[in-house]
Amino acid sequence: MAEQHQANICRHLKRAAEETPDALAVAVQKRLLTGRFRYQELNFAELDAESDRIARVLAEYGITRGMKVVLMVTPSLDFFALTFALFKAGVIPILVDPGMGIKNLRQCFAEAEPDAFIGIPKAHIARCLFGWGKASVRRLLTVGGSELFAKAFGGTSLKALLKADANSQSSHANNETPITHNMALLGSDEMAAILFTSGSTGTPKGVVYTHAMFEAQINVLKNDYGIVPGERDLATFPLFSLFGPALGMASIVPDMDASKPITANPDNLFAAIEQYQCSNMFVNPALIERLGQAGAASTEAKAHTLPSIRRVISAGAPATISSIARFSKMLKDGVEVLNSYGATESLPLAMIGSEQLLNTTDITDSGGGICVGKPVDGVDVAIIAITEDPITEWDEALRLPVGTIGEIVVKGPMVSHSYYHRASATEQAKIIDSADGPAEHSVRHRMGDLGYLDQHGQLWMCGRKAHRVEANRAGSIFDDEPYFSIPCERIFNTHPKVRRTALVGVEIRGETAPLLCVELEKGVELEKSESAVEHFYDELRAIGEKHRQTAGIADFLIHPDFPVDIRHNAKIFREKLAVWAQDSISE
């Protein structure tokens, strides 16, 4: 295989270790019982050397190139060193979101068939209790805890391996092992990692990542987002935090549960930003909401500000306009929240700054969808007709005209080619683009999202394909057009008593009909009379009748608290609401 087709993202770490060895690479915050903070740090030279060392001891322990390894270690210095060690050695880390639930985690590990399991003591206890990877795991490694604990659970500890290595190195001072210097170079199509989707919009699936995909993501962060060496990033999501050292940027990890950002203590994050004068932040909608509220409610004479921040990147789900506006008050003039669109299978794809996004409010509130911006460099976005059928071969004739809603299909160097051990899911989501021949970018990914491109090349999101409601619009000129979740919901969300809504389909007299579940704003209570509730519904119907997207929506139900995903607190579980709504109208 030609050398130019080989890659390993750890080359960026090695370059940083050579060019700026003493510069900060990682800092991890710990809040003490006294309320004060302690920080553990590694510079680039230390991170490079430690990951080299771990790669060597893993190989000696029998964890070698091509093996698949579950990595369940909380954000820490060990997490960074271990992850880079696995990449250096050509070992394939399996990364999952602990918040996806016990049942989904077990399924993920069964599908991935890991050869080894590296985790903190809590992860090993769960592994034993729930049988994670029982059929395939042959090597067990504990990070943290005692060696006695590690042996009790059938393996050894990272600490013990490193101690033995130190003793060996001191006994053979001139002995150097090849793995320390010979970083594995993987082919462009060779598997580098398996990242499981969260499962918040369906069954979790293992996305096959290559180093070429990681390289493409790094290039976007450099070229489209403008990240430069020497910056410091408040890293609130473990996977993104790994890009920091690869970009020559320090990752500052606050003391928080990364799987449940909504529970984060804002004071911890504010303190970390101030301590290291962070220039970049990666936050999801839940954190934008939480930090914005905390900043506005500051007990100081004026609201909290973040003067060192030059860039905020938000991803995972669309943040609300109101939460972005409130959060932005903490930033200096001209600093924007850069909202990224993408998915585990392909990220980032498009970007829009908060200033431009705020100018699209009227269109969004009128049912025009959410603008997610223009595609980043190297990404082609196409809209195709809505269908559940697989599409094996790409044809330009599939591309719909500007302004037409359909399924979003993307192509680019960061787009994954397959799911791991999910042939049917791969067939459903991937389209071969033979016009490019056998090149590495010859696969298009069907996002499962609906949207359209406007005349300026901007992409507008209209919700998940699975969340559209196919219902008969009798007597309307829009008979054949489905109801789309985001356009419909954003129209009704303009009612002052409404916090958010969710469109679902229900069966009424044997026919599918649209129904809107409504969650009221906090503190809003309707009179507990049938007439008061019906009056509220009449107000909603009046709003709906003004827009073609919502014409025909006449049924509503108030729900006390929508079920949402843990990580983003924004992805509504409409499938659960649909069952609840059907049961409610059937009573």
UniProtKB/TrEMBL annotation:
Annotated ranges, domain AMP-dependent synthetase/ligase: 14-420
Record Pfam families: AMP-binding
Gene3D superfamilies according to UniProt: N-terminal domain of ligase-like
Listed InterPro entries: AMP-binding_CS, AMP-dep_synth/lig_dom, ANL_N_sf, ATP-dep_AMP-bd_enzyme, OlefBLtnSynShew
UniProt superkingdom: Bacteria
SUPFAM superfamilies assigned to the protein according to its UniProt record, in alphabetical order: Acetyl-CoA synthetase-like
Protein name as it appears in the record: Peptide synthase
Organism field: Photobacterium proteolyticum
